């Protein structure tokens, strides 16, 4: 077992760990135990109602997802960390209002955060092992069956809002999460208390009404799910509501009053790549598969794949203001060899034809 005798108290060790976490670059830090019973019930019910859609991985390893101690036997505490990626909300709203520009969720404009977070968490683990000796630990960044928002809330990083995102009263919701499971006992932080009050702005603004009740998200209606996780055709009932959102959706966070306190981030890895905050739909639709793969190397956008990328942009082009450029882009693909892309292109052309009548 690790030897903590070099520190007078567990709190002294935790304080030193917090300082080290911030020195490494994390902006949020907290410690909790492995108890998440109420959240386990919520997840079980959510899965039983089929609200995870085709995300079968959400149902796999369920017994480990609802019991962190079962995922990593010997775990005593979970160190939860966050890293800000906040951006200018006014620029995001401007982007959404310009129907010929593509909207990409703010978290995906730069490099994929997973590797950066994992590397920093491993540095934190290495530092801790250097202080205490051999340490039983595992690092997670959205990479295993972990209820990270529940653990982060219990560690005091923020409360789970009615849109199901984590909110910090001092920093809003624009931050990534990661966890370090350890086999040592540390003083735990008090859980964050909820401060949404009677506000339902996130529910009201959701374009597809995916937030069916406070803290109840139906992923099957969510634009992030539809544009990233969902394979095959997007149901026509959702296409118009998707607007120009081609990868993810931020509306529920953009409208949240607590994000007026969000911290702006200039983390080099999170700086915009490929001009994605300004690019037009037509520009991005022209990317060949080779160009898509080259431009999205190290990006979360790779997850959608080239086919779904073009499917999503075809939907957005159907929602754009009719222009010569938009029509030329769509007409260039009306006989696209990819059946899925072609279906959405023809739908988009039909939308413009209806407007012209």
TrEMBL record:
InterPro entries: 4Fe4S_Fe-S-bd, 4Fe4S_Fe_S_CS, ARM-like, QueG, QueG_DUF1730. GO terms for molecular function: epoxyqueuosine reductase activity. Residues 184-216 form the 4Fe-4S ferredoxin-type domain. It is found in: Cytoplasm. Its main location: cytoplasm. Pfam families: Fer4_16, QueG_DUF1730. Pathway: tRNA modification; tRNA-queuosine biosynthesis. Binds 2 [4Fe-4S] clusters per monomer. Cob(II)alamin binds at residues 65, 142, 166, 177, 224, 249-250. The active site is at 142 (proton donor). The keyword Ligase does not apply. [4Fe-4S] cluster 2 binds at residues 206, 222, 249, 252. The keyword Cytoplasm applies. [4Fe-4S] cluster 1 binds at residues 196, 199, 202, 256. It catalyses: epoxyqueuosine(34) in tRNA + AH2 = queuosine(34) in tRNA + A + H2O. Keywords: 4Fe-4S, Cobalamin, Cobalt, Cytoplasm, Iron, Iron-sulfur, Metal-binding, Oxidoreductase, Queuosine biosynthesis, tRNA processing. Its EC number is 1.17.99.6. Its cofactor is [4Fe-4S] cluster; cob(II)alamin. Belongs to the QueG family. Monomer. Catalyzes the conversion of epoxyqueuosine (oQ) to queuosine (Q), which is a hypermodified base found in the wobble positions of tRNA(Asp), tRNA(Asn), tRNA(His) and tRNA(Tyr). This is Epoxyqueuosine reductase. It comes from Lysobacter soyae.
């Amino acid at each position: 077992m690790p030897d903590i005798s070099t520190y007078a108290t567990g709190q002294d060790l935790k304080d030193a760990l917090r300082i080290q976490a911030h020195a490494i670059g994390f902006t949020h830090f907290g410690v909790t135990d492995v108890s998440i019973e109420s959240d386990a019930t919520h997840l079980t019910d959510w899965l039983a109602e089929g609200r995870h859609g085709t995300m079968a991985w959400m149902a796999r390893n369920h017994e480990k997802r609802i019991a962190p101690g079962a995922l990593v036997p010997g775990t005593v505490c979970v160190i939860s960390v966050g890293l800000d990626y906040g951006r200018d909300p006014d620029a995001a709203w401007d982007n959404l209002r310009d129907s010929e520009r593509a909207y990409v969720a703010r978290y995906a404009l730069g490099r994929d955060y997973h590797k950066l977070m994992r590397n920093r968490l491993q540095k934190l683990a290495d530092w801790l092992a250097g202080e205490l000796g051999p340490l039983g630990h595992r690092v997670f960044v959205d990479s295993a069956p972990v209820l990270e928002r529940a653990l982060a809330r219990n560690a005091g990083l923020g409360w789970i809002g009615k849109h199901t995102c984590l909110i910090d009263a001092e920093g809003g919701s624009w931050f990534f999460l990661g966890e370090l499971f350890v086999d040592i006992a540390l003083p735990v932080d008090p859980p964050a208390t909820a401060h949404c009050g009677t506000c339902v702005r996130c529910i009201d603004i959701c374009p597809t009404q995916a937030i069916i009740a406070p803290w109840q998200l139906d992923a099957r209606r969510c634009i992030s799910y539809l544009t990233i996780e969902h394979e095959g055709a997007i149901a026509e009932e959702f296409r118009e509501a998707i607007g120009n959102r081609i990868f993810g959706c931020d509306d529920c966070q953009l409208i949240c009053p607590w994000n007026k306190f969000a911290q702006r981030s200039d983390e080099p890895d999170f700086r915009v790549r490929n001009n994605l905050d300004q690019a037009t739909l037509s520009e991005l639709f022209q990317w060949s598969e080779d160009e898509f793969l080259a431009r999205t190397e190290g990006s979360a956008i790779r997850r959608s794949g080239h086919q779904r990328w073009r499917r999503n942009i075809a939907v957005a082009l159907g929602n754009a203001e009719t222009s010569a450029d938009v029509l030329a882009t769509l007409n260039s693909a009306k006989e696209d060899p990819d059946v899925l892309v072609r279906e959405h292109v023809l739908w988009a052309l039909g939308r413009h034809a209806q407007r012209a009548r």
